Amino acid sequence: MALNVKWPPRRSVSASGRQKLLQLWRSHPLKLAIANTFWEYTERTKVSGMWLLRRNRTHGLSRFIWSSVLIGLLQLSIYLTLLLWIKFYSYPILNTISNDLSITDVAFPGVTICSPKAVNTERVERYVKALKIPPEYDKAEVEAGFEYLNAFTDQSFVAPSHDSYKITDAVLRLNNVSIWEAAMAVSPGCAEFVKRCFWGYEEFPCNQTHEYLSFIPTTAFLGPCCSFNYNPRNTSYVPFSANIFGMDGGLIFIGAEGSERNLSTGLIVLVHHPMDYVTETAASVTITARSESFVEVSPTVQSSSTEVLELSERKRDCLISDDLQLRNYRQAACMLACQTEAIVKRCGCHPYLLPAVSEKFKECDLNDTFCYSDNYGKLETFIYTTYNFKSVRCDQCLPNCYDVTYSTLSYKTDLNLHQFSVSNFYTPEVLNNDSFVLRVYLAKQVVPVIRKVTVMSWIGLLSDLGGIFNLCLGLSMISIVEFFYYCTFRLYKNYNQQRILQLKQAWN
């Protein structure tokens, strides 16, 4: 026997359930507390526009329109706040320029002179005569092997057809001579380049043992060179500053090309920071015999304010020595160490012309020239697969927060057209066919300073936020405190009052 069971309609149950939930929410203490707190806030607050939302002030369409206006202005203020925060967080630094730093507060640049021809044939012949060569080795082959030194300095180096480098390498090891010592011996140096030296009008011995006023043998990307106010082998060296400027001040010297067999190749003068190894980025001037060259140097200082230094390293995009616990951080030195590690990883040694960044790296000999020259354009880094040596990515080497860069303006006169210099202590007798005169001096008495400052501080950010909210909603700091007061303490008090009231009604 079938039983006919009549179930109640599901829709009516659902509708009645929603009605009960809605009625329960309308009488819930939290809902009543929120409503009472809102009406209390509109009656007592001084925020512009909120008085129009009072209980009996507006109704219907006017209340809807005014509520929409307030919500729209609130959204606009939030949007402007986000833009201000992005500007504060992502672009916190602004560069300003001033001209208030004296040249005495800026280091005089390092001046390095190099010959474009790193291996001098005449010097090779003289140097080989001083070496102990076993009878089984031919002297001519030993001399020919020095040609492979060009692999470290000539980017377009093409290996000769002979393999004399093996014999030369063996002879150098037999005589306990390093590649650096051999390269310095067969290349023109300070004795050939500089003859008479002057600081201003005061003459000083060019190759004297002096902390500042002297020329010393160094190396650069061009190979063996001669430098003034640059001493990479002295880690405690502090460059000096000049107190004179203009054409008659600074460094002046008479020199000679030192070319072999009177073949004029010219010399390259590089002006650089006195604490940095000389790379292709240094300002360079080519000088020739029978000329007087003028190199006008204009330093530019980059500095950072205290507020900038308080930012994180990546946000300020620069480093100071204290960040790395170093005596003196230099971006150029960091880049050089990074590049040297890339070379060592590929070839197992570092070239003689680069300063040794670690004693664990051996110096490249002539047998390593093929590795260096063949991979010059595709050396590997620790992260990236293949990169040009000059383009090795060293992202950890951020710029210095305080630095000095040097730009140059050069011009020259031809001494063949006249037999005198602009200075009266030069005479035709001291200038032969191989001589030149070079002047390196500071252009002005003051130095421009590019100073990094913060776009806004935390105080400035709060001030701008206050301006945005005051513009859109008429809010002040006390208004924000008042708003949170009503959202927390007053809401809590009203909620407790509603609960007590409902309990009393239940008992009655």
Defining traits:
five-stranded antiparallel beta sheet; eight-stranded mixed beta sheet; 14 helices; 508 residues; elongated; alpha+beta; 13 strands; 35% helix
Produce the secondary structure layout.
Elements: H1 10-26, H2 29-44, H3 60-90, E1 93-102, E2 110-114, H4 121-129, H5 139-145, H6 165-174, H7 179-186, H8 190-193, E3 194-199, E4 202-204, E5 215-220, E6 223-228, E7 251-256, E8 267-272, E9 283-287, E10 291-304, H9 306-309, H10 313-316, H11 331-347, H12 369-374, E11 403-414, E12 435-442, E13 446-454, H13 458-473, H14 477-507
Parallel strand pairs: 10-12, 10-13
Antiparallel strand pairs: 1-13, 2-6, 2-8, 3-4, 3-7, 5-6, 7-12, 8-9, 10-11
Structural summary, described in words:
It contains 14 helices and 13 strands. The chain has 508 residues and is of the alpha+beta class. Strands 1, 3, 4, 7, 10, 11, 12 and 13 form an eight-stranded mixed beta sheet that branches. It has a five-stranded antiparallel beta sheet with strand order 5-6-2-8-9, with no helix packed on it.
Provide a compact summary of the structure.
The protein is an alpha+beta fold and 508 residues long. It contains 14 helices and 13 strands. The strands form two sheets. Strands 1, 3, 4, 7, 10, 11, 12 and 13 form an eight-stranded mixed β-sheet that branches.
